[in-house]
Amino acid sequence: MSRIVYVNGEYLPEEEALVSIFDRGFLFADGVYEVTSVLDGKLVDFDGHAKRLERSLGELEMDQPLTRDDLLEIHRELVKRNNVVEGMVYLQITRGAADRDFAFPEGATPTVVLFTQEAPLIEKPAAKTGLKVVSIPDLRWGRRDIKTVQLLYPSMGKMAAKKAGADDAWMVQDEFVTEGTSNNAWIVVGNAIVTRHLGTEILHGITRAAVLRMAREAQMTVEERPFSLAEAKAADEAFITSASAFVTPVVEIDGQPVGRGVPGPVAQRLREIYIDEMRAAAV
Ligand code: PDD
Questions:
Q1: Quick one: pLDDT band at residue 182, thresholds 50, 70, 90?
Q2: Which domains does the chain have, with CATH numbers?
Q3: Rounded alpha-carbon distances, angstroms, from residue 63 to 9, 73, 93, 166
Q4: In the prediction, which pLDDT does 1 show?
Q5: Residue 147 among the catalytic residues
Q6: Does the beta carbon of 203 sit less than 6 angstroms from any atom of ligand 1?
Q7: For residues 26 and 48, what is the distance between their CA atoms, to the nearest angstrom?
Q8: 169 CB under 6 A from ligand 1?
Q9: Digit-coded pLDDT (tens) for 18-53
Q10: Which atom of ligand 1 is nearest to the CA of 245?
């Protein structure tokens, strides 16, 4: 049985779902997306993702074609139709199809596409072994706070990591770590948990926000500030956060072990807290 996807108001088998070759997502990467994880057949932090989507659309002067409730309904319907127990829902909204022109078209109808992907999220080898990352210069555009579909540089970063025998890349600008290719970057220094402050240089991770809140609630010391690559390499622990990785330890940067080179207790504890709370709150 083929996967059922959503495209512009219809639920269709994936082979029948079509988007125009004039779609501005295809021609200009003129679109935004969200990835919401699914645990026990329920959506994790749906409201966080819905709010960020609204912000991304607003920053690009794109209309919000669906209400939060419509979106929730579509997410749930796809999870149900595809029997997804663990995995994610991908959502993409583009400015729509129009003759190729750099200027935004007047009155184009946004294209809305959603699909599910099954994947183990809890029992992941990386959660136990930790990830190896390499550093690369951050060569992305200056509005990384908007979750656009221009993901070529992050893809290249992931390939650079693979070629170096690592799992992922951390991007560095003026010696400071911005974020991972598809996740936010964190370090633990002494008793402080450090992650870069919000701004246009990084994506405002939904998982990042939840983990910050949970760390504070657990009376941990949290610092939102820039940290350099050198500080990360000398840190006691490192980890990443994202909708699909939750909290995953980083054990090596540029071939150098972080701390003792094994997943650290802070990252492991935060992963447990995050999964427990999010599981209980999923909708
Ligand atoms: N990536 N930074 C970047 C550049 C990202 O692409 C992502 C998410 C994050 C973490 O954001 P969140 O916690 O809201 O998932 C940070 C998604 C998962 C992806 O592209 O698949």
A1: very high
A2: 4-118 (3.30.470.10), 125-281 (3.20.10.10)
A3: 16, 19, 10, 40
A4: 79
A5: yes
A6: yes
A7: 26
A8: no
A9: 999 999 999 999 999 999 999 999 999 999 999 999
A10: 18
Lookup: tokens for 143: 């509005």
Instruction: Find the catalytic residue in 51, 80, 147, 158.
Output: 147
Ligand 1 and 31: CB distance under 6 A: no
State the distance from the centre of ligand 1 to the C-alpha of 128, rounded, in angstroms.
21
- Compute, in angstroms, the gap from residue 205 CA to the centroid of ligand 1: 6
- Digit-coded pLDDT (tens) for 207-240: 999 999 999 999 999 999 999 999 999 999 999 9
Contact 206, 159 (CB under 8 A): no
pLDDT in tens, 253-277: 999 999 999 999 999 999 999 999 9
Nearest CA owner, ligand 1 atom 6: 182
How many angstroms separate the CA atoms of 5 and 16, rounded?
9
